[in-house]
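ok new one. same drill as before - structure tokens go in, u give me an amino acid for every spot. 452 of them this time. try not to just spam alanines like last time pls lmao
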């Protein structure tokens, strides 16, 4: 299938309508979001465990305020240990609906972040989150404090208290153009940020472990910004902006063990790559450069790529999510391509309409790929070692972002259309079974309400 399915046309019309509203009025006035309210979750991330091998304690959720119902989006931390107890009480009941107003302890912390967030990434030490914000045309940075005595909280300048609803981060957490290098290079950060990726500087340059973090911010118009977060208590600093990459960028993903990020676009079959050149003597002089693109050829026209993810256990194995055709494309990076500039395509695995995000993972030594398909309203599980379709899980309205909780054998899935988080148990896969929906977090907010 090419393009959007018939089912997706109605949703697409709503997306376009809301997108125009957002573009015209990003600094939205109105009521603040009430506490413990999921509102079009757009991005997810798991907190770092205190010790290796332990389970993460929190699921971070960026709510996008997609329908402009409130005056801000929000960042929320869901307590996964509380969730464990509630899921256990459900006793395998797939209709286990966990309303946040009935279970307030599920939300450990929340704060307003502005309209409209479009991604979420966690600093390597786990203590800070990065979010691309369309409303501020910038990168937001919010610290996460997990204190055994005082509980957990988000620290973002001096949060503005409101009469009702949740506090909102102040402007200190939005990166502004004040750095000497930024002024010297005449850098301008403007446009539509859509994705973020980061990593330790010591992983890509001869620098000590405490040298800090690099952060990449991808802009929809084909520009990529480089920030340095040197862990000195201050926020990230903009040091370079590179341009000339494909327009309509969707995601940015770091290739493990390299200083190279892969960029996907919804209007080309080419994966652009951006390299990071780090000046170890003066990191502020670091810059980005075009590392060369790879065309994903031989698979229809391929002109709509949504995401690239690398297998943690084997960095030479990558997976690309394509909408033309609607498929997961496996890449073998250890193999020479047929022609220069072409991605080393290995296999093609068909999925449903409107593929949006994917997660490769391993269970008992086998490699699987999970793909959310927004228009098909399903989650696909593929055995990437055999090419077999293992399961298709339904019961969703608009499955989008997903993260894998390896320690708990779970996947958390953002159901964008209904403003809910779905909890899916992967443990049956170990016994040749299929994943099971075990709980739903949040109250339904129907997509049709955009037109109310």
């Amino acid at each position: 299938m090419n393009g959007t399915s018939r089912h997706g046309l109605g949703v697409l019309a709503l997306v376009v309508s809301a997108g125009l509203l957002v573009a015209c009025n990003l600094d939205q006035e109105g009521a603040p979001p009430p506490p413990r309210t999921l509102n079009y979750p757009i991005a997810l991330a798991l907190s770092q465990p205190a010790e290796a091998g332990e389970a993460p304690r929190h699921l971070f959720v960026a709510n996008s305020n997609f329908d402009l119902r409130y005056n801000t989006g929000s960042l929320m931390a869901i307590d996964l240990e509380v969730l464990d107890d509630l899921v256990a009480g459900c006793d395998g009941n797939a209709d286990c609906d966990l309303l946040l107003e009935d279970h307030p302890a599920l939300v450990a912390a929340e704060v307003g972040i502005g309209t409209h967030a479009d991604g979420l990434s966690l600093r390597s030490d786990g203590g800070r989150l990065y979010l691309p914000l369309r409303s501020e045309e910038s990168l937001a940075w919010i610290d996460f404090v997990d204190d055994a005595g005082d509980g957990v909280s988000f620290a973002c300048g001096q949060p503005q208290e409101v009469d009702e609803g949740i506090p909102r981060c102040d402007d200190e957490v939005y990166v502004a153009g004040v750095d000497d290098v930024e002024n010297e290079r005449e850098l301008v950060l403007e446009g539509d940020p859509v994705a973020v990726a980061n990593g330790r500087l010591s992983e890509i340059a001869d620098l000590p472990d405490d040298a800090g973090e690099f952060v990449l911010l991808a802009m929809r118009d084909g520009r990529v910004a480089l920030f340095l977060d040197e862990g000195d208590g201050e926020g990230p600093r903009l040091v370079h902006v590179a341009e000339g990459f494909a327009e309509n960028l969707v995601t940015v993903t770091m290739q493990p063990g390299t200083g190279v990020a892969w960029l996907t676009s919804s209007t080309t079959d080419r994966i652009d790559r951006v390299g990071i050149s780090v000046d170890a003597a003066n990191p502020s002089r670091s810059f980005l450069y075009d590392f060369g693109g790879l065309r994903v050829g031989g698979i229809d026209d391929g002109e709509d790529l949504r995401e690239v993810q690398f297998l943690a256990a084997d960095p030479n194995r990558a997976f690309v999510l394509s909408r033309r055709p609607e498929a997961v494309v496996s890449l073998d990076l250890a193999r020479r391509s047929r022609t220069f500039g072409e991605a080393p395509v290995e296999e093609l695995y068909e999925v449903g309409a409107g593929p949006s995000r994917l997660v490769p993972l391993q269970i008992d030594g086998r490699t699987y790929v999970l793909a959310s398909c927004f228009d098909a309203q399903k989650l696909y599980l593929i055995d990437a070692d055999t090419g077999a379709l293992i399961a298709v899980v339904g019961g969703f309205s608009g499955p989008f972002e997903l993260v894998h909780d390896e320690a708990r054998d779970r996947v958390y899935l953002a159901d964008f259309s209904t403003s809910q988080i779905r909890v899916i148990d992967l443990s049956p896969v170990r016994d040749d079974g299929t994943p099971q929906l075990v709980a739903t977090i949040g109250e339904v907010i129907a997509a049709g309400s955009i037109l109310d």
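The helical segments are 6-24, 80-90, 180-184. and btw Confidence is low (pLDDT under 50) at residues 1-27, 448-452.
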